[in-house]
Amino acid sequence: MKTAAPLAGTLLAIAASTIGAREPAQLDTSAKSVVAAASAYVDDYNTKMQYVLADERATQRVTFARPVNDWTRTTKADLFITFLPAESVWIAVRDVREVDGTPVNDPDSIRALMDRAPLSRLGSVIAEKNARFNIGNISRTFNEPTLALLILTRKHRGRFRFDRVSVSADASPRVTISFKERDRPTLITGRNGAPVFASGILLIDAATGRVELTRIEVEMGSVTGKIETRYAEDPKLKLWAPSVMRETYSQSARGYEEMIACESTYTNYRKFDTSVVIK
Fold first, then answer.
1. With 0-12 CB in 10 A as exposed, 13-18 as middle and 19+ as buried, what is 184?
2. Residue 240: which of 141, 174, 181 has the closest Cα?
3. In this structure, are residues 192 and 222 in contact, taking their beta carbons and an 8 Å threshold?
4. Is the peptide bond before 242 cis (omega within 30 degrees of 0)?
5. pTM reported for the whole predicted model
6. Can you tell me the mean pLDDT for 106-110?
7. Which of 28, 107, 191, 203 is the most exposed place for a label (fewest CB within 10 A)?
């Protein structure tokens, strides 16, 4: 009978150790939790991804439904990209160096623009510069690879509805979140400031909030557009930076059909040095 108490104590100790050995609480992969984590990640990301340059190689292809010759163009450019905290916007500026293998001279270099005025005041100038070598009949000026990250900022996310689409089975799960813009002012505007409501998906690492893929889709009358950006870890920046951006635009009206597909890759990331003229 004297051994009963020690035995009970042993059983209690085993039970306690078993409880202590339970796996940690399961990661919350709800849309609310994942969007909150991604928003915090983007807030931090925006402070680090400033005044950055990358080598951009872009290939555009235009196809028509009618028997018209298709059109292809390849450009190489220095892409300058930065987040402007005061305006809560991304600015992307392209210094195109080569078009279809032929060197070009761009008088409005990034440095020249920065010497002229604050970048936040040069929206129309930058849009025209970036579109200078676009091909096709569909006008497009919103092609910043980081554009969709704005959806997760405090300024914009309240206008969007977020829903969880799927969760990967990885040890560190990736969650696919869909978004749909519901209210004005819209993130993107058309001609004369007309509202353009956006929708799409985000691929987010649930544990860190890291955004690994964005896809944003819009419809403007007879024109539809989609921009998808994939991110990869960059050893120089020590950040996940855009690695590939794929754009598609299509127009169908009154028997006319046109499609534009563009793929841009980004390499050689480095910090922009304002004391050096970029060529």
1. exposed
2. 174
3. no
4. no
5. 0.87
6. 79
7. 107
